[in-house]
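Let's practice the habit of predicting before peeking. Look at the sequence and jot down your guess about where helices and strands might fall. Then scroll down.
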Amino acid sequence: MKQRSSEDPQGKEAVVLLGHGSRVPTAGQAMERVAARLRELGTFALVEVCHMSMQEPTLTDALETCAKEGASKVVVVPYFLHEGTHIREDIPEMLREKAAEYPDMTLILGKCLGYDESLVDLVERRAMESLASSDVRCGLSRRRP
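Done guessing? Here is the structure:
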């Protein structure tokens, strides 16, 4: 990916990864790791993570941080694979409500993860890694990352 400045002429650009949230406390760790790598890349001045429900930080928390850090443009990337109801209805509505609270901040609904050729490679790799696993009738153990 092409490196670009993390600041536009009007101020800082930020990205917020928005996950679903879970009752499992560690469920968002992979998203946190992706955010950490994005921070290392430095494409955006600020990278935050948040969850729709059940976990913190919330979207409100993430946008408050972006505002406090001086972000003028925030891209909210739904950390979802499929374009279901959350992507088509719930998240756009959440962002419209938040936009009223931050009139000086441009809020952009980014694309969900969806299809990408790199995902094909990942699925192939995961399937190949799984071939060494036992048949489900041999007892499933809960996997922990």
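How did you do? The chain has a mean pLDDT of 90.
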